[in-house]
From TrEMBL:
Organism lineage string: Bacteria, Pseudomonadati, Pseudomonadota, Gammaproteobacteria, Alteromonadales
SUPFAM superfamilies from the UniProt entry: HIT-like
Residues annotated as the enzyme's active site: 101 (tele-amp-histidine intermediate)
Gene3D superfamilies documented for this protein: HIT-like
Protein name, as recorded: Zinc-binding protein
Motif Histidine triad motif, residue range(s) on this chain: 99-103
Species this protein is from: Pseudidiomarina atlantica
Length: 123
């Protein structure tokens, strides 16, 4: 996919973002519509549209995103209490920007999806 996304513009500094981490392969910044007290997006600098577009030779890059999530959690002091890391795929999976990214959520107790709570009540 060759269409430039908002994330490409953040990487190139065409548009601002509150960057909390950067290295040669990735960038992490605050989500503009946070769903938790801490809500960061961790993106590869290499554009990959969806999980379905990840190639075999990109597995180290994708794994690197999770290592970055761990580093950020440790640096910001929420690793011990816990955090959630999510990657959505395509429209039905909740993906809105077609450049893979991890959502890192922390800073509060993150509950189960509503359907899991209903199953727990049913026994």
């Amino acid at each position: 996919m060759s269409t430039e996304t908002i994330f490409d513009k953040i990487i190139s500094r065409e548009i601002p973002a509150e960057i909390v981490y950067e290295d040669e392969h990735s960038l992490a910044f605050k989500d503009i519509n946070p769903q938790a007290p801490v809500h960061l997006l961790i993106i590869p600098k290499k554009p990959i549209a969806t999980i379905n577009d990840i190639e075999e030779d990109e597995r180290e890059l994708v794994g690197h995103l999770f290592v970055v999530a761990k580093k950020i959690a440790l640096q910001h002091g929420f690793a011990k209490n816990g955090y959630r890391v999510v990657m959505n795929c395509n429209e039905d999976g909740g993906q809105s920007v077609y450049h893979i990214h991890l959502h890192l959520l922390a800073g509060k107790t993150l509950g189960w999806p509503p359907y899991a709570n209903e199953r727990a009540k049913q026994g």
